[in-house]
């Protein structure tokens, strides 16, 4: 069985989008995101960087679109017995928490985690059988893993094997 890692980008913050001019070229092989750093006093020319992603979600992408494109295929494969992981990475303030948890006051803007839990339990109620569901949330920051469901528990790099 062949598996692969899909990498997605989400442009969440309007101030970043304005500061780093960007363009997205879409193709059947994925999206290419081009970032343009503006000229400054030290650099007399604009520098561009190109990155290829499975898909780039722009400022107009909503939580439902992100969930259906990223999480649903992973959840469906997991329900067939395969492993799946969604891993959010980026600098502080880039929108990881919003993408994962969403808005607590607006149900339509809930993130990947509450949508995933809802999707899994809906699947389980529509099938016969008994199930045990385990849930864990880890945050890795400065080489320390934090158990977000048990704030007293941390794992230092190499100190303890994660469950």
From TrEMBL:
<dbReference type="Pfam" id="PF00225">
    <property type="entry name" value="Kinesin"/>
</dbReference>
<keyword id="KW-0505">Motor protein</keyword>
<feature type="binding site">
    <location>
        <begin position="90"/>
        <end position="97"/>
    </location>
    <ligand>
        <name>ATP</name>
    </ligand>
</feature>
<protein>
    <submittedName>
        <fullName>Kinesin-like protein KIF6</fullName>
    </submittedName>
</protein>
<feature type="domain" description="Kinesin motor">
    <location>
        <begin position="4"/>
        <end position="163"/>
    </location>
</feature>
<dbReference type="InterPro" id="IPR027417">
    <property type="entry name" value="P-loop_NTPase"/>
</dbReference>
<keyword id="KW-0067">ATP-binding</keyword>
<dbReference type="InterPro" id="IPR001752">
    <property type="entry name" value="Kinesin_motor_dom"/>
</dbReference>
<keyword id="KW-0547">Nucleotide-binding</keyword>
<dbReference type="InterPro" id="IPR027640">
    <property type="entry name" value="Kinesin-like_fam"/>
</dbReference>
<dbReference type="InterPro" id="IPR036961">
    <property type="entry name" value="Kinesin_motor_dom_sf"/>
</dbReference>
<keyword id="KW-0963">Cytoplasm</keyword>
<keyword id="KW-0206">Cytoskeleton</keyword>
<comment type="similarity">
    <text>Belongs to the TRAFAC class myosin-kinesin ATPase superfamily. Kinesin family.</text>
</comment>
């Amino acid at each position: 069985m062949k598996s692969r890692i899909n990498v997605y980008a989400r442009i969440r913050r309007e101030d970043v989008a304005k500061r780093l001019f960007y363009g997205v070229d879409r193709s059947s092989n994925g999206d290419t995101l081009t970032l343009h750093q503006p000229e400054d006093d030290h650099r007399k020319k604009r520098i561009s960087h190109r990155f290829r992603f499975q898909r780039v979600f722009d400022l107009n992408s909503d939580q439902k679109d992100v969930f259906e494109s990223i999480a649903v295929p992973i959840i469906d494969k997991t329900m067939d017995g395969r492993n799946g992981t969604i891993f959010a990475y980026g600098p502080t303030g880039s929108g990881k928490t919003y993408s994962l948890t969403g808005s607590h006051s607006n149900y339509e803007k809930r993130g990947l985690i509450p949508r995933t839990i809802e999707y899994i339990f809906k699947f389980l109620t529509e099938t016969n059988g008994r199930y045990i569901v385990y849930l864990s949330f880890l945050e890795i920051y400065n080489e320390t893993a934090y158990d977000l469901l048990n704030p007293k528990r941390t794992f230092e790099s190499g100190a303890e094997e994660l469950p």
